[in-house]
């Protein structure tokens, strides 16, 4: 099982797919890395020689921010937004959607499970009678 950037990549998959298991590497970056390392994307990860694996690892290490370093960078960016109390920072603090999504309905991923409010009646019920 090849180990790249501190992650064991799946050996049975094609190398272009295996590289995507590293946080911060998607399809485009995987193809870019393999082009720079001069490796055929259709080769299975377990068929790579030690020298080829080290070439891929050195390309990733020199040109890209991945895994722990990237996670730390993202957390620092969010902390900075919270600190300066900008709109996005306040949305992070309150646990609401940050990128302009609606919150009247949906947004359950950010807001968590529904908290039912007692005594809140619909408009139709208020106007009866």
Q: What would the keywords be for this entry?
A:
mainly alpha, 2 strands, single chain, two-stranded antiparallel ribbon, 129 residues, 7 helices
Describe the structure in your own words:
- The mean pLDDT is 88.
- The chain is mostly helical and 129 residues long.
- It is elongated.
- Helices cover 48% and strands 3% of the residues.
- The chain has a two-stranded antiparallel sheet with strand order 1-2.
- Helix 4 (67-83) packs across helix 5 (87-94).
- The protein has seven helices and two strands.
- It starts with a strand and ends with a helix.
Number of strands: 2
Helix content: 40-55%
Low-confidence blocks of residues: none
Give the helices and strands as they follow along the chain. EEHHHHHHH
Task: Decide which structural class fits the backbone.
Answer: mainly alpha
- Average of the residue pLDDT scores: 88
End-to-end CA span: 73 Å
How many helical stretches? 7
Beta strand %: under 5%
Strand order of the largest sheet: 1-2
Overall, the morphology is elongated
Largest beta-sheet characterization? 2 strands, antiparallel
Q: Radius of gyration in whole Å, from Cα? A: 23 Å
Secondary-structure topology with pairs:
Blueprint: E1 3-4, E2 7-8, H1 15-18, H2 27-37, H3 50-63, H4 67-83, H5 87-94, H6 108-111, H7 123-126
Antiparallel strand pairs: 1-2
Helix pairs in contact: 2-3, 4-5
Summarize the structure.
This protein has 129 residues and is mainly α.
